[in-house]
Amino acid sequence: MYLALNPIAFSLGPLTVHWYGIILGTAALVGLLLAIQEGKRFNIRSEFFMDLLLIGAPSAIVAARLYYVVFEWEDYQDNWLDIFAIWKGGIAIHGALIGAIIAAVWYTRWKRYSFWRIADICAPSLLAGQIIGRWGNFMNQEAHGGPVEESFLRDSLHLPDFIVNQMYINGEYYHPTFLYESLWNIVGIVLLLVIRRFNFVRAGEIFMSYIIWYSIGRFFVEGLRTDSLAFDGPNWLASFLNGLWEPMSWIFGDPGAIANDENIRMAQLISVLIVLAAVIIIVLRRTMGYANQKYSDPIRQDGYVTGSINK
Description:
- This protein is mainly α.
- Helix content is 58%, strand content 8%.
């Protein structure tokens, strides 16, 4: 019998500190440091990114929770206090992105910077936050996939004991989908850090590349999960999404079950739409002349160059 890791890090009197919160805080700090470091190349003060985090992080958390609660309203309509219990899990990344983008658009316009230029700098930070943040799901034993054999985790994936043991939940082993997504994003952050050094990259395209990369990974990982936000939609759409996901079954087996006989996972549908939208935005911005700045160009504030870029 395996003992799961304690999701509570420590207690100070009536105050209980959960690993989930510590991990999310660490994710935010690492993302901030990455943005500050890259911002130095463009002579942007570190205080700018600190303030952006102070505005963006609460906006992302609130939007992520609201997004989740809206789709799981039946679980909260009779107990409103649970809406605020985010340490129990239950936040949606797509909701977080919506909240963060809205806050960033407002903040960059207030500071008279181009949203696209700042979003490019912050894109690797977002991935870093997601890489680390997913381990909060690991500590809570949530956001996992469907059941698997222990041999799949130990012999096929060669996972260490602490991950295998934590994926033993209520008498069964499960897909560590938090790990799949975290590893996918590690590859993604490396790609972003490399391609932003190429001269052909235009302003806004690092952020769009992040959106595309994350959404592709999320689409395939989501198909393994058993806690997906879902709805009952047209069969042709469900067949289309299932067909796109089918290659994953060659490696990971059957998809995770969807509750209540619903047939469309919201995150999968949103991911496909985001990829299409991001590609269209990149093409339109280039063809219509809106992407006339390169990533490596000095960043302008209110129409004036902040200073020469530090190579």
